[in-house]
Specification:
single chain, 2 domains, 5-stranded mixed sheet, 17% strand
């Protein structure tokens, strides 16, 4: 082996070792990530939507939702973010409930966003089929490399947050159940202005 070949071999080995060490450090740090809490500022983002033909946009920036110095007339008064995946059965049960929540309170200023963290093409395609079948008009964003999920500390799915216009988190829950959505809706109805003809929440129809 020539000197040049030995140098190249050493360089490649060094790069591989550095990559392995970096991955090990990240893997060690990952379990220590803490989910955001009430009062924390929600991290910003710009992500592609999986349903542009249904939600009306190909990209969604958090600046359109919260924490922007440039407030617009159509800026939401409350934003619900939910991290989930097609491989997560509770997340799938939550999807139609999120759409229904938006249908009931969207005109009062609520925005609902589902953030899909599936990384495998098969799971993403299954989510796309589910979106079309259910005709979901809420933006479904793709966080394929879970970068945003890690920033929010979404280690357990579904991970549901309520964000105020100032970008501060007002409410956080992990997991899904009818009581979770009911509790969230009660909080939202106390935040959002009433509107004539507003449909009652599930707890009011029982």
């Amino acid at each position: 082996m020539s000197r040049a070949e030995r140098k190249t071999c050493v360089l490649l080995c060094t790069l591989v070792l550095a990559t392995v060490v970096s991955a090990a450090i990240l893997a060690k740090e990952e379990p220590d990530r803490v989910a955001l809490q009430i009062g924390d500022r929600a991290p910003g983002f710009v992500l592609k939507t999986l349903n542009p033909e249904l939600c009306g946009m190909e990209l969604l920036s958090s600046r359109r939702l919260f924490g922007s110095a440039e407030e617009t007339a159509d800026a939401p008064l409350a934003v619900v973010l939910s991290f989930g995946a097609n491989s997560c059965k509770p997340c799938i049960r939550e999807l139609p409930a999120l759409q229904a929540l938006h249908d009931r309170l969207g005109e009062r200023g609520l925005a609902v966003v589902f953030i899909n963290i599936d990384s495998e093409r098969e799971e993403i395609d299954a989510m796309l089929a589910r979106i079309r079948e259910q005709k979901l008009t809420i933006p479904v964003l793709s966080d394929r490399f879970t970068i945003l999920a890690m920033r929010y500390g979404a280690s357990e799915l579904p991970f549901l947050l309520l964000v105020a216009p100032d970008g501060r988190i007002r409410w956080v829950r992990k997991g899904y159940g009818k009581s979770v959505i009911s509790n969230l809706e009660a909080v939202l109805r106390s935040m959002l202005p009433e509107k004539a003809g507003d449909p009652p929440g599930p707890q009011e129809t029982q």
